[in-house]
Amino acid sequence: MSRIDRMENGEERLTMKKRGVLSLIVGLTMALTACTGGQFSKVKEEGQEGQDGKKMVVLSVFQKDPVYSQAEKRYEEKHPDVDIQIKEYSQGEGSNQEGDLEKYVNTTNTELLSGKGADLIALDVSGLPVWKYVDKEALVNLSELMKQDPAFDSTLYEMNILDGAKMRGGLYSLPLRFSLDSLMGDAKAIEQSGVKFDDSTWTWGEFTSVGTRLAASGGHTYSMGNTPPEQMLNNLFVDNYTRIVHEEKRPVSFDASVFVGLMEQVKMMYANKVVTDAEVNAGDYFFAPALILSPEDYFVGPAMFYEQGKIYHKPLAAGQQVGGTFVMHKNLGMNRNSNVQAEAWEFMKFLLSEEGQMMPGLQGFSVNKKVNEKTFKDLEDKGAIESPMGSTIPVQKADISIIKQMLAQAITPQQNNSKIQTIIEEEAKAYFSGQKSAQEVADLVANRVTIYLNE
Question: What is the pTM of this model?
Fold first, then answer.
């Protein structure tokens, strides 16, 4: 199970007050919330006219989403000639959540790959093989629409995020929101340890070295706690995804030798007391994975866990371009076979607009620059944040500048695939328990992953 899936299921084993605060710890809540369901809600067939001869745009989602419901209402008020219909997998009591999700994924695959389905599809549902849709040319390259649309001004958007979200040279999955992947740490204990490092450029290999020296300093026993080795392996795998899984050509290949290196690196982390799967009280380790959903998170998380906490850059994968890692939210794709692409694109632009991005319920940083600037200014003018524990945290202009810089430098999307991460977690336990060698496990993972990706 990935860090994001663990966050989805309330994974963090911390105190209730701290867990309630941290929308930013150890992975991020995916837009998917497991839902019970049985049948798709009834809507008109895609491609037909809506009510009173209106153009109908159908958006397919796994379950009801209040953000899209608000957007539907607001957009139709401004465009009375368009009928936005949300096709959702209906809820039902007592049904199997995993089974419902599997049915939804299978139905979406069948429709989209056969040239049918909704005009717009919410692609951030765990299990949807977006890469396969791109390979089969089932999705519209939104980069081309942006270039062809004279009304689309790219300077209004966080284009480093949109460029980073590209696949095969095009933007097929449009994120409406995103978060920043980072670490939070005990700045006071790190300073007292005397261990020096540059977190703006460090790699996971350097993190292991730094963690070994920190463990020897006596400040805390571990750099990270409460993390099983197979979960730590998945943490490194998502960062090294493009080094290991080669999707550019078919059939997809899996570099087992690089994966062996990751497993050995993780094993060393535990041997050197850099990471432990033992229960460790919050604040009794040097670092914790943190995903920053808002400028407030930058201040609240570290302050809740440490006397003098600080946000650090997440270590880079080997060969990864210097810059931040981000996680995409509210991802939308457009069906290439939609006969209302123009209307669907206009609705997508509304979702990207200031009005669309200011709707209640949206989490994460906006892809709209003006919305982010307003958020930064409001926070700076406020001058302080009150934490859920009742303390007041000052907000300095220098802190806002750091957050802005992190946002601007975010260029690498986190590659999450729940199916692959489940495979890794299942097979890697045999290595960390000493039952199988790293090569044996890597070969098993490579075989299962390539079968899955090439099927």
Answer: 0.85
- Residue span(s) of the chain under CATH 3.40.190.10 come to 3-29+180-323+415-454, 51-178+329-357
Alpha-helical segments (H) within 177-306: 187-193, 204-217, 229-239, 241-244, 256-271, 295-305
Q: Helix, strand or coil for residue 448?
A: helix
Residue 226 confidence (pLDDT) above 80: yes
Token pair of 111, please?
């429709």
Single-letter code of the amino acid located at 435: Q
The amino acid that residue 132 corresponds to is K
The answer to whether the beta carbons of residues 141 and 257 sit under 8 Å apart is no
Q: Is the pLDDT of residue 80 over 60?
A: yes
Q: What is the DSSP letter of 316?
A: B
E-assigned strands of 18-146? 55-61, 82-88, 120-122
pLDDT tens column, 322-336? 888 999 999 999 999
For the domain spanning 3-29+180-323+415-454, the CATH number is: 3.40.190.10
β-strand pairing of 120-122 with 324-334: antiparallel
The superfamily CATH assigns to domain 51-178+329-357 is Periplasmic binding protein-like II (3.40.190.10)
Angle between helices 418-432 and 229-239 (to 10 degrees): 130
CB atoms under 10 Å from CB of 324, counted, come to 22
